[in-house]
Amino acid sequence: MIRTPTDRPRAPACERNKAPILAVLQTVFARQGHVLEIGSGTGEHAVHFARHMPHLVWQTSDRAEHHPGIQAWLDYAQLSNLRPPIDLDVTGAWPAQTYDAVFTANTLHIMGWPAVEAFFEGLGRVLESGARVAVYGPFHYEGRPTSESNAAFDASLKARDAAMGIRDFEAVDALARRQGLRLTADQGMPANNRCLVWRRD
Asked: Is the Cα dihedral 119, 185, 13, 171 positive or negative?
């Protein structure tokens, strides 16, 4: 059944950032074939990116409570290269399948640090040789925020949950390197965000 537009969840941030992220991914994923999106959220990113990159099979994933909203977007879009969401909590079981691309947006700062570590350990199990990983969101550098707005956002996250917070780029890159990932791009994005890209050699 195709759902009506009012059935679909919406995240204002997705609408604001989907175009600049797409511009990066069209280059980074130009030769990739099968991408796993970790933390698909509302499903809006998946639909937008799959529509504009038809060469990619786009696998959505998230915790089970988000699946109905993601599926609502998939039902509405009716794209042949979009796959129904799989249940994925980074601290639990990961898919047995391997992928040559992984994308995630605005997830690392809402995970506790052990979950961030589990995220990269999981990547080590599902990434093929030559795979690309793109992570979008805010980051600190050398332990410092890059803007007043990021400092305020970090404080608001920690006020909600002490385990949350904007991650230090250097610490995240160290986790990536342990899984054989080499940083190939650190792209500035609107609203003081970054898009970090790694390649598994």
From this structure: positive
Residues 48-61: tens digit of each pLDDT: 999 999 999 999 99
Token code pair at residue 45: 């990113």
pLDDT at 19 over 80: yes
- pTM confidence score: 0.94
CA 116 vs. chain centroid, Å, equals: 12
Distance between CA 1 and CA 90 in Å, rounded? 30
Task: Please report the domains of the chain, with CATH numbers, ordered by start residue.
Answer: 5-200 (3.40.50.150)
Residues 6+ apart with CB under 8 A from 10: 42, 44
Q: Give CA–CA dist 104/108, Å, rounded.
A: 9
DSSP 8-state assignment for residue 90: T
3-state secondary structure of 151: helix
Q: Which residues pair with 182 in a beta bridge?
A: 199
